[in-house]
Amino acid sequence: MKKRILTCAVALTTALASIAQTHVMDVNTKKPGAPIQPTMYGLFFEDINYAADGGLYGELVKNRSFEFPQPLMGWQAFGRVELKDDGPFERCPHYVVLSDPGHQERRTGLVNEGYFGIGVVKGEQYRFSVWAKALKDSAAIRVQLIDEASMGEKQEFAEQELRITSGEWQKYTVTLTAPLTHNKAKLRIFLKGTGAAALEHISLFPVNTFKGRENGLRRDLAQALADSHPGIFRFPGGCIVEGTDLQTRYQWKNSIGRVENRPLNQNRWEHTFDYRYYPDYYQSYGLGFFEYFQLCEDIGAEPLPVLNVGMACQYQNWEQEGAHVPLDSLQPYIQDCLDLIEFANGPADSQWGRIRAEMGHPEPFNMKFLGIGNEQWGEFFYQRLAPFTEAVRAKYPDIKIVGTSGPVPEDVPDDTYKFSEGWKAMGRLKADLVDEHYYRNEQWFRSHGLRYDTYNRKGPKVFAGEYACHGDGKKWNHYETSILEAAMMTGFERNADVVWMTTPAPLFAHVEGWQWRPDLIWYDNTRVFKTVSYYVQQMYAMNPGTHVLPLTMQKQPVAGQQGQDGLFATAAVDNRTGYLIVKVVNTSDKKQPISLNLIGLKGERTAQTLTLQHDGLDDENTLDQPALIQPVEGTVQCTAGLKQQTTLNDELAPMSFRLYRIKK
Fold it and tell me: What's the pTM?
């Protein structure tokens, strides 16, 4: 009998302990607070890790116009091949002439290696195009997709003949159908017969690009962007906006107009990291500002272009004399900003609006935001930004200007980057938003849940324009850091009155050409996988709500504070759908019972849930296991409580993120 009493006592003690450990959170559904901006959760694109050429941009041919400093880089030439530079396109003048090798058993031609190979998918069609002319009456070429390592009878697995019928430059096209999937194919061109042919802008695109456009985007990568439901899309960088020097900065005017005449630009990520060096990394500008604006429209995101403020990369040049534009010589850079606004928003009969219309978009893109400068700091930057903001305000007062507080998220001991000073300067210059960047370790993300709770509500708004949790000694896309990013994001939403935009970074990475990680989306030439961080972003972006709701634990924000056992939480109401949305992250290594008091609701309900949970903290999705870790749908019952209170009781797994949707 005593043993039975003792057993019951132990059970009761355990039950009471369990009750004591339950974390009770109060959600006041009757007091909607700050509106959550449609731009709250978005994406940042920079051409790093072969994100544009070799990635999102659908072109499969490397150095298609022979404009690389080594004109045949990416090509293997054989027979009689001559390079010339008086072609039909002023800013891309190079082309090749294929001539008779002088014997019927010899061959003249070219082989292009693509970007880490050319990826083709079984059953898909590929459009080969070339600007060409015959040097005499006519000429012909054989266009092939080949497998050089083939053990079969033939290297080629798809072939078409193309006849060149004019002595004037014309565009010719043929279509190849892939009978197999191949990740490392090459493009081969043979001269057929004795008639010489001049070839320029040799191109190969999937016919089935995103939205079916000829100068289009790789469909699976663009669809991954659309599926994340971004509210804002920042482009084209990043450090490429600055360039290693001013000559290699990104110049938007070079990226528009007919694609054949867009000049090559050196990509500063070609040489930045000598331990991951890619000497063939250039920008064709095929993916240019028109295509960026078009992509924003396609995926429903507000465009946020970033332009140069008259400074080269400050890391590489600091304040070296001659490296940056003198204050009295900034006008062309300022005019670039004004002209871009006209290109995006001006009528079709304006100077730059006409170019947009000629490219196929007579209607304005309705750009609302403009970033000026990337990750710069100090008085050297503030002095240059001032005339830009003055000029934009004078001509386009409705455009919201995004400034920057530099490359770090806080004041550092040597005060090099002057974070606080940067914020004061942006307020003085009346920037609408300030772009903050932070790449920090696990402990930083765990300890900064309250970061924005004390920000000035009357100053510029926050744009968290580049952030990622970089694991200590584990700088890759593992599960743990993604959950900590989810925790940090509760603070974005809870402070929606001051945080208006957020974009993690970087976005894309080719598995054979990466230079920086972690990244949201990885791919090879035919496959793609989305990281856990991608799914975290998607969960937030698809469930943002329209207004913040007060959520507290013992009258305190739930932000990983002492006594909260690693819990982070936020709540919102979506007035469009009538749903309450609660997001809770457990960053501890133990299960956490929680109880949500939904004050203002009554009666029983079924909450829809979406959960990220995985036991291996160092695990990640891969090309071979793309769905290893992804959100799982479920339900939880809400019980009737007090007169105006419904209660949701649940238990969160260690290191997990759960989202609740509850119909009002």
Answer: 0.95
Amino acid at 394: A
67, 113, 375, 466: which one is catalytic? Answer: 375
| Residue 524 CB partners (closer than 8 Å, separation 6+) | 116, 119, 183, 510, 511, 512, 623
What's CA 221's distance to the chain center, in Å?
A: 10
Euclidean distance between CA atoms 619 and 2, whole angstroms: 49
Consecutive H or E run containing 584: strand 579-586
| Mean pLDDT of all residues in 436-442 | 96
Query: Long-range CB contacts (< 8 A, 24+ apart) of 322-326?
Result: 323/245, 323/246, 324/246, 324/380, 324/384, 325/246, 325/384
Question: What is the pLDDT, as a whole number, of residue 12?
Answer: 41
- % helix, strand, coil for the chain, step of 5: 25, 30, 45
- Amino acid at position 267, single letter: N
**C-alpha angle 499-503-507 in degrees, rounded to nearest 5:** 175
Both structure tokens of 225: 């962007």
Cβ-defined contacts of 259-262 (< 8 Å, 24+): 259/215, 259/286, 259/288, 260/65, 260/89, 260/92, 260/131, 260/200, 260/201, 261/89, 261/90, 261/91, 261/92, 262/91, 262/92, 262/286, 262/288
Alpha-carbon span 250 to 243, nearest angstrom: 7
Spatial separation of the C-alpha atoms in residues 292 and 283, rounded to whole Å: 14
Band the pLDDT of 594: cuts 50, 70, 90. very high
SS (H, E, C) 337-390: HHHHHHHHHCCCCCHHHHHHHHCCCCCCCCCCEEEECCCCCHHHHHHHHHHHHH
What whole-number percentage of the chain has pLDDT above 90?
90
* Catalytic status, residue 375: yes
